[in-house]
């Protein structure tokens, strides 16, 4: 699983494994990772990990969240990204080991959801189907609008992972947090409508 190395004033304070799907960082003790410094907001940021991918999200902090010198709202983390939270420097390290989902013993075989596909509903590609045969399938164009569909033990989920344009799921804005997909759900990427089909 991925981990973060937390440094303050050039001194490595601790290493934290990202063992949960979503871990919050902030000054308040209710956070998963507590940074006790007055420049850190009560709830400053969160890291969400889905399979092999981790996303950093600023939780409307006062002093902002920075990655590699750039202020971010939401960011897809890459190996050795340098995160800055107030006075803290945090290095993201990806080691290729996935976090365990839930408390299921390793010996158990994970259930496999029924096969699914995305069907284009309008435009010149109407009627075309894209089988969701991989663990992750991306839709859209990098830098403009990307939706990632992830297959989990429980089914399929969609999240907006890249680009300024907001995609929609059943008419509602799709955010960075993965949203479960049900048969018949409609994704809208810049006017192109696609239905999720399962079974």
Automatic annotation (TrEMBL):
Location of the FHA domain: 23-72
Organism in which the protein naturally occurs: Pseudoduganella lurida
Name of the protein in its database record: FHA domain-containing protein
SMART domains from the UniProt entry: FHA
InterPro entries: Cell_Proc_Reg/RNA_Proc, FHA_dom, SMAD_FHA_dom_sf
Pfam annotation, one family: FHA
Entries under PANTHER family matching the protein: NUCLEAR INHIBITOR OF PROTEIN PHOSPHATASE-1
Gene3D superfamilies: 2.60.200.20
